[in-house]
# Entry
Amino acid sequence: MKAAVSSWLQAAMPVARRLFARRIVLAAALVLLLVTGVALLYPMLSDADPGAIEIGQRLHAPSLAHWAGTDELGRDVMLRIVHGARYSLLIGVVTAAGAVLFGTLMGMLAGFFRRLDAPLMRVVDAMMSFPDILLGIALVSILGVSLWNVMLALVIVYTPRVARVVRATTLVLRELLFVDAARALGVRTPRILCKHILPNLMSPILVQVTFIFAYAILAEAGLSFLGVGVPPDIPTWGTMIAGSLDYADRAFWTIFCPGLAIVLTALSLQMLGDGVRDLLDPKLRKAA
# Structure
């Protein structure tokens, strides 16, 4: 066991050095690690109720007692940001995982089977013809306002992005010699897709995961801001901003602090995605 862990660490260290050679990528990874760690560990270390209402403390400015101030109901904004991070990160994880799963399947089928290419891509083109936020509003309106329906809607919105990237790569892989050799040896199509095509799709898929994670957090905030996102009783960063709009002129921190959390998280994910892309793309790595 120790030998396996040691060999894995030896193999991972050079990759980590190349990935974090740029300081901005390292800073992005540290921000994400901090956000994730706080979201996961704080509820275990503290039993403070983020929904506790103290009318006498309403709209107090940031102080030592309340680092990010209080909102219109006297609730601690920082505590709600930490608590809401779990929901915002959950939305990002589920959306990225679902979009990658269905988008990869759709893209592989469209890229490998010529008969399926045209009909599947016409569906993808039709979905991508709508702006993401408008398609999300339409889907949530149909499905109903709830946390899981928002995540389902975002999965549907971002699946076509992954499908197009995977299809383009599959079209190239399908014509390579190792696939022809597998066919000549009588390897069945499902095995070719799983053993030969899918492993070579990992690079673009990993990059898409980081981007869609960021897009999902921003999209949830936008939907909540418009009143068609997560229900107000769930303290995501988007619902916190939407619920404090009427008090923005008197208590700017109620919007600024959760907005800053959204910006830092989304920007860090984008920077990390750029770093992963530069690491996995031979052309970009050679140019660097």
